[in-house]
Automatic annotation (TrEMBL):
This is TetR family transcriptional regulator. InterPro entries: DNA-bd_HTH_TetR-type_CS (IPR023772), Homeodomain-like_sf (IPR009057), HTH-type_TetR-like_transc_reg (IPR050109), HTH_TetR (IPR001647), MftR_C (IPR041347). The lineage of its organism: Bacteria, Bacillati, Actinomycetota, Actinomycetes, Micrococcales. Residues 18-78 form the HTH tetR-type domain. It comes from the Bacteria. It comes from Cryobacterium tepidiphilum. GO terms for molecular function: DNA-binding transcription factor activity; transcription cis-regulatory region binding. The keyword Nucleus does not apply. Residues 12-24 have a biased composition (Basic and acidic residues). Residues 41-60 bind DNA.
Amino acid sequence: MHSMTDGATGGLRERRMADTRRQLSDTARRLTAERGLAGFTVEEVCEHVGVSRRTFFNYFHSKEEAIVGHADDMLDQAARDAFVAGGGGEHAGLTPTLLDDLAALAVSHVELVAHDPEQMRSLAAAIGKEPQLLGVFMRSGAENERMLRELVTRREGLAEDDPAAAMAVVVFLAVVRHTSHQFFAAGNAHPFADLLHANLDALRSVFAAERPARP
């Protein structure tokens, strides 16, 4: 049986690990903004934080990953569970709140990658210096599309190859890509969540337009 002391010790260890991870990311972002991605080494990041090279690679596989966040940080389990739980009920077609709940997942990811406004500014500065990092940050590859489709089909009670679920994910990821470009653009002062919801509202207005009858 685990004692309360064991739990407290484990919690302290996790907080220390999270703090080290944040320091490594903050330092990598700051150095990228100052010098560019090729202008510093992993060893320099470690020296600034006061950890070994081995410790760095316990957290991240590369400098790029340290800047944008770990692949496992795409979504935490609580966010996934909340999304799936939002399905069900009596309705025709996809649940009415699907887009809003997908947006909550995207915002959750951004908050995992950058926990406070200062970290967000640091990340934005790094991406401004090295725009190719935006693609790494968005992680919009086939694996993430597959993961979102799986979550949508579980939530909606649909078959894995359901075309409505596939289109919902494809369209949503396109909106997220557009929002990310807006968010990291020079001079932007709007929160990611506000931009995303504004773009989703615009998308709804497009789909709400009356469709002419087919000949």
